């Protein structure tokens, strides 16, 4: 019987324990090998910068580098980028990652969102501007024209053209709201007054008003003079009456003295 057989017979438990330990070490080593394979341990690559590139070109660069990619967002439209351009990426450019990582791309939409234009005529101008901006329209301006009504929307144009409510309009279109300024007091299309005639009418009205003011001032001064004279006359009468009373009192006093 060999030495190994004798050892096995004498120490079966110890031998089985040693064999189990060796098996565990072997399994651990095999597991580490699989982890290295599946996680690409020690295999890192630098992420290329694909921002500001068309999506097709960005995909070619990533795939040539052995990297996988996915589009994370392509619904938002940015005016400063061409349609279909990569705006941002994650992980960031020039960082080091494992090849199993996925590069997420934020791509500019192919066209701006299109929204039906609401009815705005006869609404207050400020309300119309706020409504359009809340809907997503980015270029909204407001001007005014002479009109009887002040601040109400009279017209809406899109890129210089009249557009009916409900028409689909890009949010990047230039929308102009025209409101009335309230400068026309009485709009009568049958009566057109020449500006020079209007100036002469204004001058005549001013002259009439000045004349009336002067006449009223003279009348008020005359009334004041009459009242002053009447008051002076009353004062003279009162003074004369006082003198007469004093003379009578003096005469009566003299008579009383003579009697005594």
Oligomer: single chain
The biggest beta sheet reads: 4 strands, mixed
SSE run: HHEHEEEEEHEEEEEH
What is the total number of structural domains?
4
Instruction: Assign the CATH architecture of the largest domain.
Output: 2-Layer Sandwich
Q: Tell me how many strands there are.
A: 11
Please state the CA-atom Rg, rounded to the nearest Å. 53 Å
Strand proportion, as a percent range, falls in 15-25%
CATH class (first level) name of the largest domain: Alpha Beta
Description:
The chain has 260 residues and is of the alpha+beta class. It has 4 domains: 3-39; 44-107, Trypsin Inhibitor V, Chain A; 114-181, Trypsin Inhibitor V, Chain A (2-Layer Sandwich); 193-227. 47% of the residues lie in helices and 21% in strands. It contains 5 helices and 11 strands, in the order H-H-E-H-E-E-E-E-E-H-E-E-E-E-E-H. The chain has a 4-stranded mixed β-sheet, covered by helices on one side. The longest helix is centred in the C-terminal third of the chain and has 65 residues, at 195-259. It is elongated and about 190 Å long. The termini are far apart. The model has no long low-confidence stretch (mean pLDDT 80).
What is the fold's blueprint, element by element?
Blueprint: H1 3-10, H2 12-39, E1 44-46, H3 55-64, E2 68-73, E3 86-90, E4 96-98, E5 102-107, E6 114-116, H4 125-135, E7 139-145, E8 150-158, E9 161-162, E10 168-170, E11 174-181, H5 195-259
Helix pairs in contact: 1-2
């Amino acid at each position: 019987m060999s030495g190994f057989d004798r050892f096995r017979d004498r120490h079966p438990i110890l031998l089985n324990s040693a064999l189990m330990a060796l098996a565990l070490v072997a399994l651990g080593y095999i597991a580490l090998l699989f982890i290295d394979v599946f996680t690409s341990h020690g295999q890192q690559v630098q992420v290329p910068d694909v921002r500001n590139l068309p999506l097709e070109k960005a995909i070619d660069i990533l795939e040539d580098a052995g990297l996988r990619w996915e589009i994370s967002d392509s619904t938002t439209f940015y005016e400063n980028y061409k349609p279909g351009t990569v705006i941002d990426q994650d992980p960031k450019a020039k960082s080091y990652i494992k090849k199993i990582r996925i590069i997420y791309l934020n791509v500019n939409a192919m066209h701006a969102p299109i929204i039906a234009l609401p009815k705005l005529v006869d609404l207050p101008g400020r309300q119309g501007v706020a409504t359009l901006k809340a809907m997503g329209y980015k270029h909204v301006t407001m001007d005014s024209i002479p009109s009887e009504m002040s601040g109400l929307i009279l017209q809406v144009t899109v890129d210089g053209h009249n557009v009916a409510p409900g028409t689909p309009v890009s949010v990047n279109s230039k929308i102009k709201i025209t409101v009335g300024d309230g400068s026309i007091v009485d709009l009568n299309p049958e009566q057109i007054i020449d500006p020079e005639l209007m100036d002469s009418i204004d001058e005549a009205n001013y002259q009439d008003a000045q004349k009336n003011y002067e006449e009223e001032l003279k009348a008020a001064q005359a009334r004041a003079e009459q009242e002053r004279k009447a008051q002076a006359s009353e004062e003279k009468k009162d003074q004369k009456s006082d003198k007469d009373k004093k003379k009578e009192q003096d005469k009566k006093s003299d008579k009383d003295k003579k009697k005594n």
